[in-house]
Amino acid sequence: MMLRICLRKNIPYARPLFTESFYRLLSTRPERKLQDKVALITGGASGIGRAAATTFINNGAKVIIADIDQQHGRETVKELGPNATFVTCDVTKESDISSAVDFAVSEYKQLDIMYNNAGIPCKTPPSIVDLDLESFDKVMDINVRGVMVGIKHAARVMIPRGTGSILCTASVTGVIGGMAQHTYSVSKFAVIGIVKSLASELCRHGIRINCISPIAIPTPFVMNEMNQIYPHLESERLVEIVRNVGVLKGANCEPSDVANAALYLASDDARYVNGHNLVVDGGFTSFKSLEFPAPNQVQ
């Protein structure tokens, strides 16, 4: 042990640092990074939102799940226990988001974390010449406007307190082009831009704002899309296709990985992280290989 080594070898040590480390070593209680915090998660009834709610609660937070899906929302709250609450919320309606934020303050006297996670996929044709502007507007209404409204009302109650953490779900499709239909990709590029723009204002009030860009994960959100593209394939095969997109050998990206990223950004561990897009993709967007043929393959 550290104590035995220090005494036996007469190694000098800093007493405060040593004492802190010693008691942390002896403690059997896991660290609860969000103890007594209050979080509101839009789109929290399933997938990444649900995983984040679970992780936040396990770390001491009280969580309000705001979702348009009442059935799954109530089922999720029942499974998560007394520290979870459900409110119906359509993020295309500013009044719904405002009411959800007001509920958090009324119920718990504060809102510490706002996680703008709600979003929809894009069902428009792949070519710009076939762009359906009605579908475009619908995606932007939820994926972009819904995020802006969530930030607006979270800031409304966080600014007077001079503290808070705002998170948004972006995507690797907003990091590099060509990974999704234009409409969806543009909506996620916009989320990353929103975060960077608003960080410039919110930092003056002690509020941090960040986003997370995950690679494709076999959540209900993704699997519904895959079922439409490959209706003839079994679900196990669809999961395999999604996971094969990854480049990090020996690991698959799961909702829990994104939830852990959200936990980090929401907690004091990231107290000086602001305006950041945390990419959770195993390195997928970090490189592109030049697939030159081997010398013995070229005539």
UniProtKB/TrEMBL annotation:
SUPFAM superfamilies: NAD(P)-binding Rossmann-fold domains
Keyword Oxidoreductase (UniProt): yes
Pfam families attached to this UniProt entry: adh_short_C2
MF (Gene Ontology): oxidoreductase activity
PROSITE patterns per UniProt: ADH_SHORT
Coiled-coil ranges per UniProt: none
Family under the similarity heading: Belongs to the short-chain dehydrogenases/reductases (SDR) family.
Name of the protein described by the UniProt record: Zerumbone synthase
UniProt source species: Vicia faba
